[in-house]
């Protein structure tokens, strides 16, 4: 990511997504409110791969996922695997995805977010030795839906930044 071509904007958006993913809710808020937090990193990586596939590839997405694993304290490689898979799907379909409406893109984000959240849930169950609970599945689905609902505004903000700052 060359700074001369706006690589700092991509890096800054990824760092901001990571920060948003670990922001703590104020003391006293109900636990279920954390379920309404979208997967910011998925949204940012999906956007940059769709908009500029030559700037963000599999290895970059995998490294971003490794940083996310360390940041969240999850099993090493789970987010890396998920983001690399999402990058591969987006990378192979980016020309078609650009022609989709925001609603169609949001539907694809819903599918990808659901798959990623299910992989994360399965990894937590296996690595932590937890038993399956339905509330974990509900939380996974709520997070995926919120990620899809946040896609249109995130898309508009990142597109405005890309055009305004001439990221190529």
Give an overview of the whole structure.
This protein is mainly α. The protein has one domain (3-21, 31-164). It contains six helices and no strands. Helix 2 crosses helix 4. The radius of gyration is 16 Å and the shape is globular. The model has no long low-confidence stretch (mean pLDDT 90).
What would you call the shape?
Answer: globular
Strand count, sense and closure of the main sheet?
A: none
Distance between the termini: 10 Å
Give the count of structural domains.
1
Radius of gyration: 16 Å
Task: Bin the strand percentage.
Answer: under 5%
Q: What structural class results from the helix and strand content? A: mainly alpha
Mean pLDDT: 90
Strand tally: 0
H/E order of the elements?
A: HHHHHH
- The percent of residues in helical segments reads over 70%
Work out the helix count. 6
* Low-pLDDT residue spans: none
Any key phrases for this structure?
168 residues; mainly alpha
Give a nutshell description of this structure.
With 168 residues, the chain is mainly α. It has one domain (3-21, 31-164). Helix content is 73%, strand content 0%.
Per-chain topology:
Elements lengths: L6 H16 L17 H12 L6 H15 L5 H22 L2 H27 L5 H31 L4
Helix pairs in contact: 1-2, 2-4, 2-6, 3-4, 4-5, 5-6
């Amino acid at each position: 990511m060359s700074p001369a071509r706006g690589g700092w904007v991509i890096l800054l958006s990824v760092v901001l997504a990571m920060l948003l993913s670990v922001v703590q809710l104020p003391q006293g808020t109900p636990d279920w409110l954390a379920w309404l937090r979208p997967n910011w990193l998925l949204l940012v990586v999906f956007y940059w791969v769709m908009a500029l596939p030559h700037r963000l590839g599999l290895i970059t997405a995998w490294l971003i996922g490794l940083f996310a694993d360390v940041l969240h304290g999850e099993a090493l490689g789970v987010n890396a695997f998920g983001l690399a898979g999402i990058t591969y799907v987006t990378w192979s379909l980016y020309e078609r995805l650009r022609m989709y409406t925001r609603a169609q893109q949001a539907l694809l984000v819903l599918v990808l977010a659901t798959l990623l959240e299910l992989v994360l849930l399965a990894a937590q169950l296996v690595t932590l030795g937890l038993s399956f609970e339905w509330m974990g599945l509900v939380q996974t689905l709520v997070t995926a839906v919120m990620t899809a609902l946040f896609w249109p505004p995130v898309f508009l903000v990142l597109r405005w930044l890309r055009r305004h700052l001439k990221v190529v």
